[in-house]
Amino acid sequence: MPKAKQYVDQGITSVQSTVNTLQQALHSAEKQDNKDKIQEAINALNSAQEQLSGYQD
């Protein structure tokens, strides 16, 4: 059975992928309000990634 750390690492990879996708959306968005919302989501995900990167089994 995988250790929690493996799940955390998998989650970090997923977060990185999501951030990359949202950055593409950010560049494609036209309305500033939408850009702001996307940027807020990116910031939140980056924060989550930072917290998870300190996880140790």
Detailed description of the structure:
By secondary structure, the chain is mostly helical. Helix content is 82%, strand content 0%. It has helices at residues 4-28, 32-53. The chain is elongated, with a radius of gyration of 14 Å.
Low-confidence stretches: none
| SSE string | HH
User: What percent strand?
Assistant: under 5%
Q: Nearest-angstrom radius of gyration?
A: 14 Å
In total, the number of strands is 0
- Measure the end-to-end span: 14 Å
Keywords: Coiled coil
Coiled coil: 12-51
Entry keywords:
single chain, 57 residues, mainly alpha
What's this model, at a glance?
With 57 residues, this protein is mainly α. Helix content is 82%, strand content 0%. Helix 1 packs antiparallel against helix 2.
Summarize the topology:
Elements: H1 4-28, H2 32-53
Helix pairs in contact: 1-2
